[in-house]
Amino acid sequence: FQNPSGSTLSEDRRAKLLDIAEKYDLIIFEDDPYGHLRYAGDHVPTIFSMDKKQSGRVVYACSFSKILAPGTRVAWIVGDPDLMQKMVMIKQGTNLCSSVVAQALVYEYCRLGHLEGFLPKIITHYGKKRDAMEAGFKKYLPSNTVYNTPEGGFFFWLQVPGIDSTTLFMKAIEHGVAFVTGPSFFVDGSGLDFMRTCFTFAQPEELEEGAKRLGAAIKAL
Question: Which domains does the chain possess?
Answer without folding.
Answer: 11-112 (3.40.640.10), 121-220 (3.90.1150.10)
